[in-house]
């Protein structure tokens, strides 16, 4: 292939953010957060996210461990990809599902464009639509499945460039927050008006708070957590975390939520809480000051909703086999499962309540014992021992 015929990413120098750019991002974040409680808005959200990143199509995609095909849960702007065309490039493209949480990966990072355009996938599916590249970020990963958000690049967009990566980094955390919260409950179109009634029936703890952290409402599961007084309590009418660092995070998130969606930034996503007995919980905060969330029958003083659920790492039936096969210590096995469930070293350190250096030491030992050389290899290792749940 002639080098001159290869689409090239345009050199990108990050410009100063203009006020209209900031407003565009803020508006997009608002639509994404609305989709957390109203799934009918996801198509609109991913369409706008596709244009924001610099593409013509996008999707929220789920893939079960061991499966060589993926399912688009919500999609926009492209024709469905036949499994038979994806199968030949599956192993080359698999890192899209194994990357670090929220970190962009382009297909042309994995397969040179000259090779990609020789595949039947490109000739029969991508080229007729004018598609030449794909950029994605992992939103969630368990021992059974992975979820990613991805954007397709058209010929007129060029190959994935630094601007596309920057835009993906800006928006991926917010899509992740909405997806993780949305998975805690399944609203159908038209049910948003009964938001509070639905939340009161959740097994997940839910709290409505104002910008100062004052507790406005707690559902039954949330009240039970407060009554236990282990990870959360109510003091002076405010929601208080037992851990001082977590409390600072909550205080900052609630205050920011009072200023609007974009002000929250990436704080308040997958906040780890650990009880005195070692029981782990995870919390996600959702701003409530605008859009469908404001119209969902919520007390207008509420600035944020906090969702709290048990988050024991998935220790599948395969974990014992993995531990015995590679002679892992209990701590090494916990770190291995955490890498699969949570992501990179900083996230695992937060989840387990230890220093980054401690996790890094255990990861190095895992490399020695398993023969892996990358964290993605460790994820593959666990996947290889895991049988997806039927149904």
What's the count of strands? 12
SSE string, helices as H and strands as E: HHEEHHEHHHEEHHEEHEEHHEEHEHHHHH
Largest β sheet strand count, sense and barrel closure: 5 strands, antiparallel
Structural class of the secondary elements? Answer: alpha+beta
First-last Cα distance: 46 Å
Strand order of the largest sheet: 2-1-5-4-3
Whole-number total of structural domains: 3
**What share of residues are in beta strands?**
15-25%
Report the mean per-residue pLDDT as an integer: 83
Give the CATH superfamily of the largest domain: GAF domain
Number of helices: 18
Fold and architecture overview:
It is a single chain. By secondary structure, the protein is an alpha+beta fold. The protein folds into three domains: 17-182, GAF domain (Beta-Lactamase, 2-Layer Sandwich), CATH 3.30.450; 192-310, Beta-Lactamase (2-Layer Sandwich); 317-385, Arc Repressor Mutant, subunit A (Orthogonal Bundle). 43% of the residues lie in helices and 19% in strands. It contains 18 helices and twelve strands. Strands 2-1-5-4-3 form a five-stranded antiparallel β-sheet. A five-stranded antiparallel β-sheet has the order 7-6-12-11-10, with helices on both faces. Strands 8-9 form a two-stranded antiparallel ribbon. Helix 1 (19-37) packs antiparallel against helix 2. The longest helix has 21 residues, at 162-182. It is globular, with a radius of gyration of 22 Å. 41% of the residues are buried. The model is unreliable at 1-6, 8-16, 188-193 and 387-391 (pLDDT under 50).
Q: Secondary-structure map with pairings?
A:
Layout: H1 19-37, H2 42-53, E1 57-64, E2 71-76, H3 83-86, H4 90-93, E3 105-106, H5 107-110, H6 113-116, H7 120-129, E4 131-141, E5 145-154, H8 162-182, H9 195-200, E6 205-209, E7 215-218, H10 220-228, E8 232-235, E9 238-241, H11 244-257, H12 261-264, E10 271-274, E11 280-287, H13 291-294, E12 304-310, H14 317-325, H15 330-341, H16 345-352, H17 356-370, H18 375-385
Antiparallel strand pairs: 1-2, 1-5, 3-4, 4-5, 6-7, 6-12, 8-9, 10-11, 11-12
């Amino acid at each position: 292939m002639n080098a001159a015929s290869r689409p090239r990413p345009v050199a990108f120098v990050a410009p100063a953010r203009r006020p209209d750019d900031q407003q565009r991002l803020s508006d997009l974040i608002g639509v994404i957060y609305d989709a957390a409680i109203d799934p009918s808005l996801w198509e609109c959200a991913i369409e706008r996210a596709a244009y924001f990143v610099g593409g013509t199509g996008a999707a929220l995609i789920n893939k079960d461990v061991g499966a060589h095909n993926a399912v688009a849960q919500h999609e926009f702007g492209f024709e469905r990809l036949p499994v038979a065309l994806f199968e030949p490039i599956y192993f080359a493209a698999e890192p899209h599902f194994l990357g670090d949480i929220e970190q962009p990966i382009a297909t042309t990072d994995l397969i040179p464009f000259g090779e990609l355009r020789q595949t039947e996938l490109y000739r029969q599916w991508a080229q007729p639509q004018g598609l030449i590249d794909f950029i994605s970020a992992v939103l969630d990963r368990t021992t059974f499945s992975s979820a990613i958000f991805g954007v397709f690049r058209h010929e007129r967009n060029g190959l994935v460039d630094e601007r596309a990566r920057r835009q993906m980094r800006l928006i991926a955390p917010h899509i992740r927050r909405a997806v993780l919260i949305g998975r805690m409950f399944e609203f159908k179109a038209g049910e948003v008006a009964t938001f509070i009634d639905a939340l009161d029936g959740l097994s997940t703890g839910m709290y409505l708070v104002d910008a100062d952290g004052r507790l406005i409402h707690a559902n039954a599961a949330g009240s039970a957590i407060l009554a236990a007084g282990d990870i959360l309590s109510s003091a002076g009418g405010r929601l208080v975390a037992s851990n001082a660092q977590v409390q600072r995070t909550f205080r900052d998130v609630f205050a920011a939520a009072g200023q609007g969606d974009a002000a929250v930034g990436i704080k308040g996503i997958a906040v780890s809480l650990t009880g005195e007995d070692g029981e782990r919980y995870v919390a996600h905060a959702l701003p409530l000051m605008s859009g469908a969330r404001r119209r969902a029958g919520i007390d207008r003083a509420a600035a944020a909703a906090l969702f709290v659920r048990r988050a024991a790492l998935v220790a599948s039936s395969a974990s014992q086999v993995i531990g015995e096969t590679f002679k892992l210590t209990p701590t090494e096995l916990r770190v291995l499962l955490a890498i699969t469930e949570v992501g990179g070293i900083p996230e695992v350190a937060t989840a387990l309540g230890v220093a980054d250096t401690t996790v890094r030491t255990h990861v190095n030992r895992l490399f020695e014992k398993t023969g892996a050389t990358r964290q993605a290899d460790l994820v593959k290792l666990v996947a290889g021992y895991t049988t997806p749940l039927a149904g």
